Amino acid sequence: MKDKLSKKDIINLLPHREPMLLIDELINIKNLHSATAIMNVKKDSFYVDGHFPDQPVMPGVLIVEAFGQAAAALTAHGIDKETYENKLVFLMSIEKARFRSPVIPDCKLELNIEAIRSHGRVWKYKGEAFVEGKKMADAMWSATIVDKK
């Protein structure tokens, strides 16, 4: 098992594509337990012109989406390839999401995620997002593995 996934590796695991593929790297992987996702928040990101003009901020909902993508990549990477073949990971619920400081483009957002538990196809995760060591957001969420149609 790799302890680091590149953007190309992530593309091979997730169905997301630009501009909605938000995470650039997955590092410090502890199989099916935890990892850190790296998201390079850029000045030319698709949401910058409209959120908000002259004072761009990464929408909180996209931080939650990045958490979900990181968790899906961690899970897809860790489970048996045949088990994950023709499957997708869907977000089920978001709990206790808190946004502590605005994430301003032109930074590296580090998303520390942890799988708390799994029961069959349902997984629960928690995560914290940091920029230069400062906590920007945290959340808990659940996801499920479903069959592709």
Describe the structure.
Helices cover 20% and strands 43% of the residues. The protein is an alpha+beta fold. It has a single domain (7-147), classed as Roll (Thiol Ester Dehydrase, Chain A). The protein has a six-stranded antiparallel sheet, with helices on one face. Strand 5 (122-131) and strand 6 form a beta hairpin. The longest helix is centred in the middle third of the chain and has 19 residues, at 60-78. The radius of gyration is 15 Å and the shape is globular. The two termini are 28 Å apart.
What is the CATH architecture annotation?
Roll
Q: What is the domain tally?
A: 1
Radius of gyration: 15 Å
Please state how the strands of the largest beta sheet are arranged side by side: 1-2-4-5-6-3
Sheet having the most strands: 6 strands, antiparallel
Average residue pLDDT: 94
- The total count of strands amounts to 6
Share in helix: 10-25%
Task: Encode the helix/strand succession as letters.
Answer: HEEHHEEEE
Q: Tell me the number of helical segments per DSSP (H or I, 4 or more residues long).
A: 3
SS-based class: alpha+beta
Instruction: State the distance separating the first and last CA atoms.
Output: 28 Å
Q: Based on CA inertia axes, which overall geometry fits?
A: globular
* Unreliable spans: none
CATH class: Alpha Beta
